[in-house]
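input
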Amino acid sequence: MKKLELLAPAKNPEYGKLAINCGADAVYIGANKFGARSTASNSPDEIKQLINYAHKYFAKVYVTINTILNDKEIEEAQKLIYSLYDAGADAIIIQDMGLLELDLPPIQIFASTQAHNNSVEKVKFLEQVGFKRVILARELSLDEITQIKQNTNVSLESFVHGALCVSYSGQCYLSYAIGGRSGNRGVCAQPCRKTYSLLDKKGNTLIKNKHLLSLKDLSLSSYLKNLIGAGITSFKIEGRLKDENYIKNIVSYYRQNLDYVLESKHLKKASSGQSIINFSPNPQKTFNRGFTKYFINGRQDKPGAVDYSGFVGEYIGTVLKVDKNNFIIKYKDKSNKLNTADGIAFFNNNGYLTGSTVNKTDNNVIYPNSLKSIKKGIKIYRNHDHEYIKHLSKTKIERKISVSFNMHEKDDKLILQAIDEDNIRTEEFIFNNYDIANNPSLVLDNINNQLKKLGNTDFILNSLDINLSNNYFIPKKDLNELRNKVLEQLLINRLNFIFDNKEKTQIKPCDYPYLSQEVGFEANIYNNFAEKFYKRHGIKKLSYAAETLENMENKRVMNTKYCLRHQFDLCPRLNSKNSNEDLILLDEMNKRYTLKFDCSNCVMEVYF
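output
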């Protein structure tokens, strides 16, 4: 039976453990170097702590080494991969193809989405050269994913939630071109979240001072069943820089949604144990820029978050009247009212997102910290639900593995057998030198009560069978020691099972031909080993990575499926009256960028 994986981000080991408690089947975490999120790095020893915790639940830990590397760094990365292999990591996520030219330990290698995995041909190539999983480009539709699955056998991973890069991952050089901070080197400055103006070729302003390259957040919770049908086996949540409440809320939400789908399709999750939470997950309560389905159904959505780059929140109601120190609100839903200490957001007369804090409420009379820009008729959103966040921060989330006990006797021993939900089993015994009790019911109650006390262990009791020939009086102390010993050994057996059954794979160099015989700087070749890799696979002509260039002027710095023409109804394919000429982006420093439109492939290109 196919097992499906919910994959969550881990900024550090503690967040990783939290994600696992919330139900993640696997987590991905950055090593202390060479990760695409340089501010979320962890040493092999720290990652080993997370691995030991995750493996108790048969959950996996994948480590990102997904930047491009120079000649000195790549050999350092090789040593790091060996350290991570020794720590027990389940896979390494990479972008730099030069790593495949090195002697690596027998660990699974996954192709990062930074490798620009957007076609059948590219995924087939990655499979042939030894990748065990390909993390697909976020821009793919269900039909495109299905085509990839039908033509390959490699495991496929897809993002289902979180922030979106406006460019195809690995194909954005805007941050490097502007200020030398490269996304492919893990230090993107996120210029896509800044404001820009859109001009035509004559210099006429079409759109002024909007977040023209900023996208809404991805949310595909309603498409999990479709993605399973298309061939996805790992469902990835973005967010290695997000906070603890994001992990709690979003991972729990997707665990519940995925479990519902798995049950309806008679499929299994990829790990063990049940996540126990005492809150109702709600993605609207956690930071987001609004949600988009992006291109999962083709180009239907308008994914741009052009009016804001912050958190708008959930719509609460409309202002009916403004007084000296308060305003009156007409609630959209009377069961969802504002409370003291809530954060509110709204758009001012100039269309900019602003906000305030609620000092006090009296039914529909709201006393904010500031009334500035609050006018009659504006819509009020809540972007900080104080009560929800307070409850979320205090909530205790546990993950428990189901276990069944059977107590019986053999010869001169009383044996406690434990069998968990994965059919891992063990038993421990005590010598039977106990007296027979006068009161049978009290004896059975005593045994039941002590063996059921699983408390702070990793287990929850599913069933307990007691099959003894006599009613032995067994002291509580002895029963507790027996129970603890059998659970300790069961945990050891589980970890041994993971170790014994870990998939080991060795990359074997081959000469399977690349998609073309020529590659530009977009191939992100940054070291001699990467050059050797591409030449091995038939490349006759190549250029080194953009990060080796001193000047990106007149170079394409972004390749994106997102199209400003489509966002603002300027597409000539939809209306022949619209111009098909290039457009101009003007940033906050009055730097100009040319927008070219490859309508045959339905992509927009940004030139520096």
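quick obs: The radius of gyration is 28 Å.
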